[in-house]
Amino acid sequence: MASASHRRPLRKRRTALLWAVAVTAVGLLVSLVIVLRPGGEPDTVRTAAGTTAGTSPSASTATRKPTPAPKPSSASPTPRRTPATAVSPTTPSARPSPAATRSPAPRPASGAAPLAGRIKPGATYDGVATHYDAKDGDGACLYGPSPDLMVAAMNHADYETSQACGAYILVRAASGASVTVRITNECPLPCAPGQLDLSKEAFAKLAGLSAGRIPITWSLLSPSTSDTVSVRYKTGSSRHWCGIQALGHRNPLARLEVRTGGGWSRLTRTEYNYFLSPDGTGCGGSLRLTDIYGEQLTVDGIAVRPDTAQPTRVQFTRR
């Protein structure tokens, strides 16, 4: 009986041992199958690794180049600043700077003189007045001596190749005093645009000579006069070459033309206020004078007599 009771537990231990061995073998077999699958790792591991590599912010910013800033759309260009000169000249703020434009500051222009240059009728110009010894009144315009010393020299810019010669200018000082002068001379640089160099006699009508330099305003004037225009040929003029000058014109002179077989030929104006015919065209023939307003005067019968002022019977209209 004793031996029988001891054999029954032994069989149970063997059976348990066999089950343990079997379970262990099955586990090893499953592990080998998993390890030997293609990819060498479980699906869950590969999926997690792929998700990490494709979505990691640090990985994308490390290899991606910065995106360039977009260019402005052509539909909405950058606004441009309108230059001050584009504003209407009748507006006070539109007056150009003398340093930038090399011109006086007009207020406002009438535009009634299509042939006017820098000095326009109906406009008031700001500037300064200085004074000089005009002596006999002659100057760069070569009008010759004059008993009337209410004369002035126009600054270089507004002299404009002698187009200012003969112009009558009304000058006003801040005190309210005024004087009318005739342009017979040029004030060279550094005379600034808008500046008038007055004869001492004219300056004294505005202020004491000791002032030296005063602020002024000035404008073009079309005076009353009973005189008529005169014509003078320059020294050395002949039928083969001549220089022609007009004197005593009420309004600034814009053109001087000579008659030719084909009509009228415009002569070139010099800085010394003569119109030249270098080949003699029109010398001694009919002349046509045009002022800045476009009015034309025809003069006949003026012979080539150098250095002689020959009067005519015509004069420009007062404006």
Explain this structure.
This is Expansin (Peptidoglycan-binding protein). It is a single chain. The N and C termini lie far apart (162 Å). The chain has helices spanning 2-35, 43-55, 57-63, 98-101, 156-159, 200-203, and strands spanning 105-107, 124-132, 151-155, 168-173, 178-187, 196-199, 214-221, 230-233, 242-247, 253-260, 263-266, 268-269, 275-277, 287-291, 296-299, 309-311. It has a six-stranded mixed barrel. The chain has 319 residues and is an alpha+beta fold. It has six helices and 16 strands. The chain is elongated, with a radius of gyration of 50 Å. Mean pLDDT is 77; it is low at 1-15 and 29-104. Among the domains are: 124-220, RlpA-like domain (Barwin-like endoglucanases), CATH 2.40.40.10; 230-311, Expansin, cellulose-binding-like domain (Immunoglobulin-like), CATH 2.60.40.
Task: Give the topology, please.
Blueprint: H1 2-35, H2 43-55, H3 57-63, H4 98-101, E1 105-107, E2 124-132, E3 151-155, H5 156-159, E4 168-173, E5 178-187, E6 196-199, H6 200-203, E7 214-221, E8 230-233, E9 242-247, E10 253-260, E11 263-266, E12 268-269, E13 275-277, E14 287-291, E15 296-299, E16 309-311
Parallel strand pairs: 2-6, 3-5
Antiparallel strand pairs: 1-2, 2-7, 3-6, 4-5, 4-7, 8-9, 8-16, 9-13, 10-11, 10-14, 12-13, 14-15
Pfam family, one: DPBB_1
Domain RlpA-like protein double-psi beta-barrel: 164-217
Protein name: Expansin (Peptidoglycan-binding protein)
